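Recall that a protein's primary structure is simply its ordered list of amino acids. Everything else, from secondary elements to tertiary packing, is in principle encoded there. The following example makes that idea concrete.
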Amino acid sequence: MKPVAIFRHAATEGPGYFADFLHECAIPWQLIRIDAGDAVPQDINVYSGLVLMGGPMSVNDDLPWIPQVLALIRQAVARDIPVLGHCLGGQLISKALGGVVTRNPVKEIGWGEVTVSGNDTARAWFGDTQSFEAFHWHGETFSLPQGATHLLSSAYCANQGYALGKHLSLQCHVEMTEQMIRDWCEAGVNEIAASASSPAVQPARIMQAQMAGKLPQLHAVARLLYQRWVAGLVD
């Protein structure tokens, strides 16, 4: 099988649990480290799928690699190669397909409940799951591209996820591991402090104290999503 391309946009925002899942399934993957200056591939056909992780930048920033990634996403969708986006990755997919990315009413950082939409597409992705505690770290939000189906919402962000055929975009993070949460809390200490007045921002000590109780359920939800997504990989 051709490898899955995984785009990393920040050193601390790697594939996390998604990489563990691919290893378990014996699915090859290649990490493209945008943060380290790796070139954006020109031809999506050498990959079986395209995955985009998170990052602290905005898709609206004037960065040279963003137009190249948007073009690659459009190429993948046109050729029916599945695309999966986490947070910034979901925003990149939305922008590539005609959606817009704007400031969310409040910043969300930490654990928070998301609700699964009551439609057949959502049930196909999430099974019987009606809500779960996701991990959040974002100040912007995406709109749904034309033809997409709404999957998830939270009290502070209406669009937490959508599907468009075999393509999946998430605003929240389901790929988290304990180490990733610790690293983000360390790197984001100033952002957490500056956003403390937001009703959707948790102190770092609370995020980390809740990891042991919440990560197993989060990984169970992630596995549901990833299992369906990898079923669409192109040989």
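Residues 211-230 form the longest helix (20 residues). The first strand starts at residue 4 and ends at 8.
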